[in-house]
Amino acid sequence: MQGIPGKGVLLTQMSLFWFERLKDVIPNHLITSNVDEMPEDVQVFANIIRGRSMLVRRAKVVPLEAITRGYITGELKEALCKGHTNQCPKKDLHGPSTNPKGLCMV
Questions:
Q1: Least trusted range by pLDDT, from 17-21, 59-63, 85-89
Q2: How far apart, in whole angstroms, are the C-alpha atoms of residue 7 and residue 9?
Q3: Nearest residue to 66 (alpha-carbon basis) of 90, 39, 34, 95
Q4: In the sheet where 97-98 sits, what is the strand order?
Q5: Per-residue pLDDT for 8 more than 70?
Q6: Residue 98 in contact with residue 104, Cβ under 8 Å?
Q7: Separation between Cα atoms, residue 61 and residue 83, nearest integer Å
Q8: Between the CA atoms of 70, 72, 78 and 83, what dihedral angle is there, to the nearest 10 degrees?
């Protein structure tokens, strides 16, 4: 099975962006992403992990799932548009709406 080239770097950089952006809003577990600031026994792998690794504190997992697109299609759309909200802990006060293309906007 062939992996996605650069996937680790991309995911790490996206995480770092949000950790930095939200650091004054909510604390996070990031210590550093700079390999040179990591323990020496980790630094020996610097050429392999640079850009795609982080040193972090142990943290409690918060189980959270979010939809990160503006439009929903398929079975979830149908359920939400019918008012079934058991997939989400909160329902929008106005409920989901539909755009001209028939896609449910949440």
A1: 85-89
A2: 5
A3: 90
A4: 71-72, 104-105, 97-98
A5: yes
A6: yes
A7: 30
A8: -30
**Do 76 and 87 contact (CB within 8 A), yes or no?**
yes
- Residue 42: pLDDT band (50, 70, 90) is very high
With b meaning 16 or more CB within 10 Å and e meaning fewer, what string describes 11-21?
ebeeeeeebee
Please tell me the distance from the alpha carbon of residue 73 to that of residue 88, in angstroms, as a whole number: 16
Q: What is the mean pLDDT of residues 22-45?
A: 94
Given the structure tokens 């755009």, which residue do they identify? 99
Instruction: For residue 105, list its beta bridge partners.
Output: 71, 97
Amino acid at site 64: L
Please state, in angstroms and rounded to a whole number, the distance separating the CA atoms of residues 100 and 12: 37
How is residue 18 written in tokens? 């949000």
The answer to whether 36 and 43 have CB atoms below 8 angstroms apart is: yes
**Which tokens in the block code for residue 38?**
């990591």
Q: What is the mean pLDDT of residues 56-72?
A: 78
